[in-house]
């Protein structure tokens, strides 16, 4: 499964990059396939491992912010692996046509 999520600290002002970086560090240290863009971090794995990492990412932000907002979107497809890369490759292939 792939989960795209966004963790946003609230009550810390407009510059939240350092807080978001704390969450992204947790994701990258997990060893699970992941990708971060301007709006979301996507992570791929099974339900338990992905949710554990997301929980740790939220905790990292929560440790420094008085309030945290979490947005999740999940693509749950049992038995599918490497979807984080293959879905993008499919779109790129169509764009090249």
From TrEMBL:
Signal peptide (residue range): none
InterPro entries linked: MTH1187/YkoF-like, Thiamine_BP, UPF0045_domain
Superkingdom assignment: Bacteria
One Pfam match: Thiamine_BP
Annotated ranges, domain Thiamine-binding protein: 3-92
Family in the record: Belongs to the UPF0045 family.
Protein name per the record: MTH1187 family thiamine-binding protein
Species in which this protein is naturally found: Streptomyces anandii
